[in-house]
Amino acid sequence: MWLAPSLRRRLISLAFAVVVMAFVGCGAGTAARPACADAVLHDWTTGTLGSEYSPECYQAAIDALPEDLRAYTSAADDITRAAITAGRNANATRQLADVPVEEGDPSAFPSEVVALVGLLLVTAAAGLAAALVRRGREE
Amino acid sequence: MSIAFRALLAVAAVACLSLALTSSGSSAPSASRDVAFGVADDAWLAHGPGTLESRLRELSKLGVEVVRFTVRWDQVAPQRPQDARDPSDDAYDWTEIDGVFKGLRRHGIDPLVTLFGTPSWANGGRGPNWAPSSSQSFASFAYAAGRRYPWIRYWTIWNEPNRPAFLRPTTPKIYVNTLLNPAYAELHSAIGRVQVGGGVTAPRAGDGGGVAPVAWIRGMASAHAKLDAYAHHPYPGRPGSETPWGPKCVNCQTITMADLERLEREVHRAFGRKPIWLTEYGYQTNPPEIFLGVTPEQQATYVATSALRVYRSSSVTMLIYFMVRDDRSPAGWQSGLFTADGIVKPAYAAFRSPLVQVARRGGRVVLWGQIRPRSGRQPFRVRIEEDDGAGWVGGNRWTDAKGFFSITVTAPAGAHLRVWSSRDNAYGHEILVR
Hints:
The complex is a heterodimer of chains A (139) and B (434). Chain A is mostly helical. Chain A has helices at residues 5-30, 35-45, 55-63, 67-72, 75-98, 111-138. The interface between A and B is medium-sized, with 16 and 21 residues.
């Protein structure tokens, strides 16, 4: 079958991409799932699935679901829902962390440092005054 | 004494009399329900350990009334028949099915036939889960099967067609027009008093293009489905935390045993007051099923509780338990009454003689149950075991003609109760009074 050179190049590129994707896909398929995926599945089984896992753990658990769980139970829906809740919680925590604790001039010295320096200055002044008084008495 | 006071006394006397009658051994329920309990396990029945006869005897011992068995169109007719309506056409091979059905008939067990699986010659070389190209081919096969087994009353069309694993394209319209309605008409022309069940739906859509049962039922109604009963598989969605009674899923499209009322509502709205057949149901056990399994004791409890659930429903007339013996493969299904090695699980006794605590007020416990083997009224006793000893609660009692009983006994919380069936020379499963 005759093919135009440009079309041939495209087909070769496409075939290369397919081979690479298949290779990567196989690698991903054969890789062992993280232990936290088993923990997610275990928690679902016992009815205690919460939102404390990372998104990767939920996804790995969904990917690892056996066919009968996928077809006959709510496992996939429940885990997806837990993952969404976990994502929302993570966003909320991040947003909380982004909120400034104090408002004001960020370049100003903290009040604790100012107080400490003040105390040091007062102590030094008192020491100096005491030394001057002692020298005056000796003279 | 005023008239009002006398009337009050009379009402109180009648109430006391009824309470006394209830608690003094009137054991049969007032109106027995006509519900049949059965099993489905094609692989075990056709090829399990022992002989077919020994397996059929086991089913009789369990008190099985109905056995669901799949007739694979693609296996009976791997080649296109010359005359597809003629059951004796050379292309048809009924050998294995003949043996199973004759055996069931000999033991007085009703088969429930499921017709499933398209031969490649009927769908352009595709797999058995692809609909046939022509509705006539399946209709002719249904007619031939009906003529082959005209004494079989219960038939269902296809298995879980709302899942792509069993039917593609997965639409209620294809199901109704290509499979259900043509087979319904032909089975009714082949068999006089046949009942054809449609739907046979899985409890949820799953992923990958499935259709949830609520949408499927509505779609079947829109396609003008013809059926004598609606069949469904109400497997639990969360076996670890879901009992046959709940928790219920509000506004869900799925239908499990906990949501039986939704199934009744949808079926009656779509098809009128047709009976409902629950043609597959079960709880897997852990071990060996670690993710879907419950403990063997929980499985036994749910087997008994689901029987009461169905008994109390006004429209369910059949409950088929899947399966008899666990799959040998860990990846398979593990809801058997026996382990893969043939060891009896507690669910075996719960199937043969289910017992459920319905209510308790102080030391008075209301029990519901059934003795399934044989027909007619059955004698039984209730055994109690407490920390300080064991004994019988009352004397001999009798079930109703279908084997059901509802009794009130005296037993404290924490006691263990079991039913003794003298004709079976066996106990039912044990329940803990709560």
